[in-house]
């Protein structure tokens, strides 16, 4: 399995959205950069906030696009082009309605599932869907008509703490995931549920 060379955290730019559920992917990248004492810096050529860390002996590019969610593809394509990263060497972290807060799942390839960030990335990569995803559970409001307000709303304190616990577990499994040992990473992550979820 190819090793992962870049981790992309999806979200919307600006203070207004920082704490909203739609930014769960960006929260992971921010936490990882902070834990590695490597600040994310604005990088115009990648249309986002960028840092490079070493994880499990591998260089890993971190990027939070600073375009709106439905325009995430431009930043991802720019990073891939610059560093010659193939789609199957990407891990894209995003919020997932179909999973409860406090859980997260790895997935390789597949469709966009109606997620506007994924849809734009697939399109920007020339319809190549082979990139890996990290689906971060945020739960579902129960009705389709409430989804937009829900993803752009803030999680409750208990939900946020469950999401943060899941992100902590993701960080623990990332060395295996980026080294290409997906079975081991999935085994651990997929059996985790945060206590309060």
From TrEMBL:
GO MF entries: peptidyl-tRNA hydrolase activity
Q: What class of enzyme is it?
A: hydrolase
User: Cytoplasm: is it a keyword of this entry?
Assistant: yes
Q: Active site annotated at which positions? A: 22 (proton acceptor)
**For this protein, what is the EC number?**
3.1.1.29
Q: Which reaction does it catalyse?
A: an N-acyl-L-alpha-aminoacyl-tRNA + H2O = an N-acyl-L-amino acid + a tRNA + H(+)
| Compartments (UniProt record) | Cytoplasm
Q: One Pfam annotation, family name? A: Pept_tRNA_hydro
Annotated residues that bind tRNA are located at 17, 68, 70, 116
According to UniProt, residues marked as the site described as Stabilizes the basic form of H active site to accept a proton are 95
Return the annotated site residues (Discriminates between blocked and unblocked aminoacyl-tRNA): 12
> Which SUPFAM superfamilies has this protein been placed in?
Peptidyl-tRNA hydrolase-like
What InterPro entries does UniProt report for this protein, alphabetically?
Pept_tRNA_hydro, Pept_tRNA_hydro_CS, Pept_tRNA_hydro_sf
Q: Which UniProt keywords apply?
A: Cytoplasm, Hydrolase, RNA-binding, tRNA-binding
The answer to whether the entry has keyword Nucleotide-binding is: no
Q: Which domain of life is it from?
A: Bacteria
- State the oligomer form and interacting partners: Monomer.
What's this chain's function?
Catalyzes the release of premature peptidyl moieties from peptidyl-tRNA molecules trapped in stalled 50S ribosomal subunits, and thus maintains levels of free tRNAs and 50S ribosomes. Hydrolyzes ribosome-free peptidyl-tRNAs (with 1 or more amino acids incorporated), which drop off the ribosome during protein synthesis, or as a result of ribosome stalling.
Q: Which NCBIfam families match?
A: pth
User: Which family does the record claim for this protein?
Assistant: Belongs to the PTH family.
The name on file for this protein is: Peptidyl-tRNA hydrolase
From the broadest rank down, the organism's phylogenetic lineage runs:
Bacteria, Pseudomonadati, Pseudomonadota, Gammaproteobacteria, Oceanospirillales
């Amino acid at each position: 399995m190819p090793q992962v060379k870049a981790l992309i955290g999806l979200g919307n730019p600006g203070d207004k959205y920082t704490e909203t559920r739609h930014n769960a992917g960006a929260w992971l990248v921010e936490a990882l950069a902070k834990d590695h004492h490597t600040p994310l810096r604005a990088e115009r050529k990648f249309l986002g906030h960028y840092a490079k860390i070493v994880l499990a002996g591998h260089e890993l590019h971190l990027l939070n696009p600073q375009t709106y969610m439905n325009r995430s593809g431009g930043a991802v394509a720019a990073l891939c082009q610059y560093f010659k990263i193939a789609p199957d060497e990407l891990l894209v972290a995003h919020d997932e309605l179909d999973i409860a807060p406090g859980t997260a799942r790895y997935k390789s390839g597949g469709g966009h599932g109606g997620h506007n960030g994924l849809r734009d990335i697939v399109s920007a990569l020339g319809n190549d869907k082979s990139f890996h995803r990290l689906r971060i559970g945020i739960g579902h409001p129960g009705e389709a008509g409430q989804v937009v307000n829900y993803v752009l709303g803030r999680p409750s304190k208990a939900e946020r703490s469950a999401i943060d616990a899941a992100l902590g577990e993701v960080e623990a499994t990332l060395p295996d995931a980026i080294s290409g040992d997906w079975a081991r990473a999935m085994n651990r992550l997929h059996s985790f549920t945060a206590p309060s979820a």
